[in-house]
Amino acid sequence: MKNIGTSIVTFMLTCIVSAVSGQKPMTEGTLVYKVKLTSVDDRTFKGTYIFSFKDKEMKKELKLESGYDDVTLFDFEAGKIYNLQSRNGVKYAIQLSMDELIRKQQNYSGFQLTKERKTHDVANTATYTGTVTYKNGATSEIYYTKEWKPAHATTYNRFPGANFIPLRFYYAEENGIKMSFEAERLDATPIASSVFRIPPDYKMISYDEYKQISKE
What we know:
Largest sheet: 12 strands, mixed
Number of domains: 1
Distance between the termini: 81 Å
Order of helices and strands: HEEEEEEEHEEEEEEEH
Number of strands: 14
Structural class: alpha+beta
Oligomer: single chain
CATH class: Mainly Beta
């Protein structure tokens, strides 16, 4: 009887380890979201939000149908973030603070995911739905995949340290802008390193320098 009990425990532990080890970090690939932004005056803007991953690097590009284009490059190994902007015909690569990003994400860290259940696939990926509850009591319904997880804890501002890739989610920014995301495509395919490089025609400056330029 003792041997049977031991065998059951061993089997259960093996299943748990297998399930965890089967979850793959997204170290290289592309994730494309359909995105909708609603302003405080109820204007709606649609577009795509493209996440590109390669080892220690990540690129986020928000492209709206209105022509707005925002690109942010992350180098997790070097601890650097650059936002690409153009002002008065001059292109700038503005260095942002990785520490500041992490500090802001602390408001959303330690969340709990409950009421999990299998649902219809999103972006041709096995999908679950559940409720995220934050430390302040706020909740959010999300759809996600357990097959993949972010390679870096700071990938998602609202889900720091997540062990899943969110596929459909919604939130409101502090400035009142509401944002919804739904994954269209998730591809674990090779990406050229050049995608993550600052273009040569961009001038690298600090955030404080850019604020000063913006006042001129």
